[in-house]
Amino acid sequence: MSQSFPSLADIRAAHERIQPFVHRTPILSSTAINEIAGCEIFFKCENFQKVGAFKARGAANAVMKMTDEQKSKGVATHSSGNHAAALARAAKVAGIPAYIVMPSNAPEIKKKAVKGYGGEIIECEPNLKARETTLEEVVKKTGATFIPPYDYMDVIEGQATCALELIEEQADLDVILAPVGGGGLLGGTALAAHYLNPNIEVIGCEPKGADDAFQSFYAGKLIPQSGPNTIADGLLTSLGFLNFELIKTHVSAIHLATDPQIIEAMRLIYERMKIVIEPSCAVPLAALLADQDSFSGKKVGIILSGGNVDLGKLPF
């Protein structure tokens, strides 16, 4: 493995560094869901995290690792979702400016969150090229440090702290399921599991309508996302290069779920666990229920990635 990837000591140091700025989220289980699934599931509830998503970890770690000179000019990123809010909040805590490039069609709830944390939103056309060129202009004008949403070592290191907590509390897991979009959470999870207990299988879970990680994993080369179409709006992005390297080495499979399966799993969690999750968050449970035989009788950790959903637009 490349020396440039964070070590276990790096991940532990990140965990220590972000302590004052994030929650240690609870691990919940549901007897009813266990019976339906035919296995024992431990849900790591990052939907209860600051900013409502695991992204608070990576953003806080990246900001805290910046030099004073970098901090004085602030941070910038492009994101339509949880990373935008997470970076705006991390910047606010550090007392520095945050410039967030967001596509014009980003969910209103996510724009509100960024503004609420004092981030300055710069809107652009809803395509990757527009996001990247607008960000370049912002960085040029402000001198701010670009903190990418997922393909960035300090962010991956921060996201790895989630699985670190899960495995420390539930050491006897057979498998961990995590959603995959850009791959920061899955890459970090795979790295933490590799260090702490290499016997734990790590599986990425992805919507069928945005399956670039699935395609890339089984082709052995990075295949960019094209025309994604899924209710899981947090997983529309292309898999990152660094994360693909981690996933190729330490992830054992990628499983898919259809939108109807994702909606069913989302509803099941609302009804049985009485907690709010967003569609992207339901993908691992959906993938598990679609392939129950693979998990029969096992102890399964599932990372519930976030709970930022527009309650006026629930799919059920």
Order of helices and strands: HEHEHHEHEHEHEHEHEHHEHHE
Question: Segments where pLDDT lies below 50 for 5+ residues?
Answer: none
Q: Determine the structural class based on helices, strands and strand pairing.
A: alpha/beta
CA-based shape: globular
Strand tally = 10
Query: Major sheet: size, sense and barrel closure?
Result: 6 strands, mixed
CATH fold annotation of the largest domain: Rossmann fold
Strand-helix topology:
Layout: H1 8-18, E1 27-28, H2 31-37, E2 40-45, H3 55-64, H4 68-73, E3 75-78, H5 82-94, E4 98-103, H6 108-116, E5 120-124, H7 128-142, E6 145-146, H8 153-169, E7 175-179, H9 184-196, E8 201-207, H10 212-219, H11 241-250, E9 253-257, H12 259-273, H13 279-290, E10 299-304
Brief overview:
The protein is an alpha/beta fold.
Kindly describe this structure:
This protein has 2 domains: 8-53 and 152-313, Rossmann fold; 56-146, Rossmann fold, CATH 3.40.50.1100. It is globular. It is of the alpha/beta class and 316 residues long. The longest helix has 17 residues, at 153-169. It has 13 helices and 10 strands. A 6-stranded mixed beta sheet has the order 1-2-10-7-8-9, with helices on both faces. The model has no long low-confidence stretch (mean pLDDT 95). The protein starts with 7 loop residues before the first helix and ends in a 12-residue tail after the last strand. α5 (82-94) links the parallel β3 (75-78) and β4. 46% of the residues lie in helices and 15% in strands.
